Amino acid sequence: MFVDPVDKWSWISGLVSGLFAPTCALCGAPGLTTGGGRDLCPGCAAELPHNRDACLQCAVPFDSPMPAGTRCAACQRHPPPFETSLAAFRYEAAIPTLIGGAKFRGRLNLVRLLGQCLADRVREVDPPCPQVLLPVPLHASRLRTRGYNQALEIARVVGRELALPIDHGACVRIAPTPPQAGLDERARHRNIRGAFRVRGPVPWDHVAILDDVVTTGSTVAELSRVLRKAGVRRIQVWAAARTP
Ligand SMILES: [Zn+2]
Ligand SMILES: [Zn+2]
Fold first, then answer.
1. Of 29, 39, 57, 169, which residue is 20 to 30 A from 80 by alpha carbon distance?
2. 45 — alpha (psi -120 to 50), left (phi > 0) or beta?
3. Cα–Cα distance between 14 and 98 in angstroms, integer?
4. CATH number at residue 30
5. Residue 79 falls within a domain, yes or no?
6. Per the structure, how many domains does the chain have?
7. Phi, psi (rounded to 5 degrees) for 96
8. Could you tell me the distance, in angstroms and rounded to a whole number, from the CA of residue 79 to the centre of ligand 2?
9. Span from the CA of 30 to the centroid of ligand 1 (angstroms)
């Protein structure tokens, strides 16, 4: 287990926000100064595609508003192995640019912004509080080429905002799964099966799996199955974005 205590990185965040005035990552206008500063201006913030009308269980966006707690048809037919999901945004408009910058270009200000927005969404939904955040692990070879795990970096921001610890050692990715992009749902399931393993006993009863983008949900479903086998009873999924 590698549990990050809450606040381990707060001094870095304080340093970064103290050095640079918040500047909108999308248009360059002055950013919001609330909550320690945010690299987003009020205009661009209002335009972002928030994912409020979505399936309770898998967070897939609904085309039209539904009563709170509605599950999509797919979740009703085959309930996934996690209880609920939430995502800050739909993966559309400016969001792929923000996620791409956070994921492939190491833009720490975007990691911070996505984490702040995800924490906002968690506060808005106000789900039962998990004991710990579990970022979706990257395979060691991918970690070497990219240099960091974007899910872990976003989790650090969310953990700091919501005072939750992070466990990034409970699970490892043992299969270097090729990128899921471009695969249909069935191929994604095949691709991801057996990709994760727990390392020793998992001491948690209630966790929130954290990822940058949830697409079909096959990755978080596979990780949930492994965690359930290891004795975790309650699993939520928190993501910065969800594809329609
Ligand atoms: Zn802006
Ligand atoms: Zn659903």
1. 169
2. alpha
3. 22
4. 3.40.50
5. yes
6. 1
7. -55, -35
8. 8
9. 8
